[in-house]
Amino acid sequence: MYKIYSGNTGSGKTSKLKTEYQQLAAELGSEKILLFLNSARSVSQFREELDLKLMGNLNIYTYFGFVNQQLNKNWPAVERKYSGSNQLIEPTFMNIETSHFLMSNYVAKYRKNRSYFRSIKARPVQIAVQLIDNLNLAAFNMLDFKELKQRLLGWTQQDEERREYAEQSIEIMKTFRDFSLNYRLFDYSAAVSLFNRYLLADQDYLFNLNQKYNYLLVDDLEKMVPAGQELIKSLTGAGINGIFTFNESGGFNRFFGGNPAAAKKRFFNSEAEILEINENYTAAAASSELAQEIKAVVQERKSNLVQSPLLLEEIDSELRGEMLIKVGKKIISLLKKGVKADQIAVISPKIDKVLSFSLQQILEKNGYQLSNFNRSKRLIDIPFARALLILYLFHCERTNIVGVSSLQQALSLLLELDPLRSYILAEEIAASGMKLIDLDDSGLRDKINFQAAEKYDYLKDWLQDKKEEELEIEVFFQLVFSEVLAPLDPSQEDIFACRQMIESVARFHQAVENFHQEKDDLSERYINMIYEGTLAAETLFKGQEKEAGVILASPYKFLFSPELAGVDYLFLLDISSSDWMQSIAKELVNPYIYTEQWQQKNEWDDRLDQKIRLNQLSDFLISLIYKVKKGIYIADSFLNSSGKEQEGPLYRWFDVRGE
Q1: Are residues 7 and 150 in the same domain?
Q2: Which residues contact 134 (CB under 8 A, 6 or more apart)?
Q3: What's the pTM value of the predicted model, to 2 decimals?
Q4: What residues does the UvrD-like helicase ATP-binding domain cover (predicted)?
Q5: How do residues 503-524 score in pLDDT, each as one tens digit?
Q6: Most CB atoms closer than 10 Å: which of 84, 112, 412, 432?
Q7: For residue 559, which of 628, 649, 637, 474 has the smallest C-alpha distance?
Q8: How many domains does the chain have?
Q9: 80 falls within a domain
């Protein structure tokens, strides 16, 4: 038996779940409760906000975190079932950047040797991401590799070029998967497949979980991948009591494997106690009516226009730059009237540099900040992590990729220098071929001040000493952090970034040493990818701390950030952009073909593609509306930043002026 709190975005479902958790933990002990949340950031936030007098073990996980933990814990039994022997080959769980890196190496190899994907302009790492998405989506939907192959080929529908690329993708994915299983080096897809096959199907395993836990709590059931839904169903079927939440308008993560329709089919039945929640704590009274209108107009393609008192004003210009200036001025006027900066959100389907730079300039000129939640936060952008990487590049004499600006910022931190003196020193080092110079020979000792010169000499000697020790990368990183960076009073973000990078490199080294003798070559390319920011954005960070600034985000980023509860005012930008209706399908991956719905009809055409786009748009807009308390501004331009006419349909569906 289980109960489901069902409601729209902002109805208080998560708060009710948290209250239930705290009451149960106080009565039974937290160790008797298993809780699934949808992101690592949500897990961290939930743990931080708990208020319990006595606290046992906290069994709070993402689904993937739970799968990895259970495979590690039960590996001897899984190994016996998998290989039929008692040999213990310790498994290694790849993080995202490691799996992307290894797959990109396979792609690059096949491209070079066999001319694969010859008409696809994407880089190997971008193709690798799509291939890993295929493996993940198949595993998330409990499909084996044979079924993956059939569905991917079926999607090509007599298109010879697409079929050729599908066959090439299958060959590379098969090579990657065989290697992964052979070396017990598991990415997400392999881990989920092994868990489903060897643990979830084991009645003794389920019995043991039933003995360990009395309650299973799940937030955002609609975002749970079908494999996770099956685990939840198995646990409640084994006698564990369930308490879940379900967002009726939360289907916006379909590309990442979520399947709200499958969740409803599995859980909304006679076994469930459905508790409908009609309140809303983050939205205006008119939100429900506006949400229904949007659903009718966008999803059901009715011809009438959307009207609502929540739609305050339409900001139009022929040129996008002019529109952004008008939006900036409107935001400034709200701020000067006393609206808090973090109660204003600017949402656009694509956060490009023109948009972020324009708003940032306008806000900073008036003394306000912009909090860009779509900023691609590379490791190299975190001061202490940047210093860690740059010291390593000097240590191994690979400074050819180090820029003067990055070096200058690292020197400012390491030597506690002002920007001018650190720039002078960085310029001299660059002029010497990016080699650390002698301060006396260059005449810089007096220019940068005595204290900074002493620190520089110490750092130069320290690097020379470590070079003679021939340290592994992760050992070098640990020594840099403990002996050089830690005394400089790093922030929590700095500590976390350095720890993540140390763990990432350690995992990578652990992975490659199992199968590749030329570790130095692979390590160099891996470090280059981190330095260039190829992999870092969302793979290394649990989430972004909320800053006290005007929020800038894409719809998905805004809705999927647990720290963003709601705002007073919302600006919907670029509403005539076709980016509001992006397809979930890419060149080499289509999430829909792995769903139950595909199995029923086994078809893909423009009509179905448009239907899914409209459903996605409807879910985005409705969820956004339930995050707004006071009003929405619509902003648009006839031409985009490239001077091209915008022809997306969304602008035709809003009637702000009541005309």
Answers
A1: no
A2: 148, 152, 169, 173, 588, 589
A3: 0.81
A4: 9-241
A5: 777 766 666 665 554 555 556 6
A6: 412
A7: 628
A8: 4
A9: no
